[in-house]
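Bug #77: duplicate submission created two jobs. Keeping one. Sequence:
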Amino acid sequence: MIEAVAGEAYGPWIRRVILEPAGLEETLPDMPLPRGAPMASGHSMRLPLGKRLVIPGKNPTNAMAPATGFVATAGDLARFFGQLDPEAKRSVLSPESRREMTRRHWRVPHYSIASWYGLGTMSGEVAGWDWFGHGGAFQGFLTRSVALPGSGLSLSLLTNAIDGPATLLLEGALHIMRTFAQMGAPKGAARAWRGRFWSIWRAFDLVPMGSKVLVAQPALANPLQDASEIELEGRGRGRIALADGYGNQGEEARIVQGRGGKVRELWLGGSCYLPEGPLAAEMKRRYGA
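Kept job's structure:
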């Protein structure tokens, strides 16, 4: 259709009219890549063969190029979707066109998570933030890209596996950003409470926000889901002011610092958590390599 209307081949036209004006220097409308350009190989699911197979994904898509031929970096995808925001200062489209593209026209039926389609864009809500964007899929690859209207923020997450959890990971990133937006950057004594700490059971991340410290679980798609909150009471000491029913509500939290202020131990109630190296060494001593 583009070639019939424009009187020009699709590839050169899309470069001249869309990619170059949008500043997408790391995007091509189809394979092959220029010589020397890096490319991540795709992968199959682990089942049914019991191992992942490499799917190079370097084949041209020819007539399907407008739907599935684009090759890009996460940065370029974030730039592209950010420019579809009706409030974006730079775009190849008018604000009126962008509003029509990104507004909710149709709700996706028979889908447990409320989501909508605009004109070529998907939209929904995560952590109280409205978003629009789209997913991408090709044999061996799965991606998700979104923009947050009016915020100037856009994100893209690319995975090189056909079952890559792109949507879950991106939504986790949105939850983290939303929590920072609500609580603010760390300040004062809270800044010292940071890092990843382990026991044989799990790992925790100390994430300072504002004057508090959140105890995140990096194994979760949303690491801040049901995160405990520590309110500081003195140098290296605090109280677990908020925790779920299986946590240590009201108990003491403290850090033990070494040279240069680096945290050597984290105590939550009566449990001690260590940095990765010391915990790995202790496990080898106890249970063998």
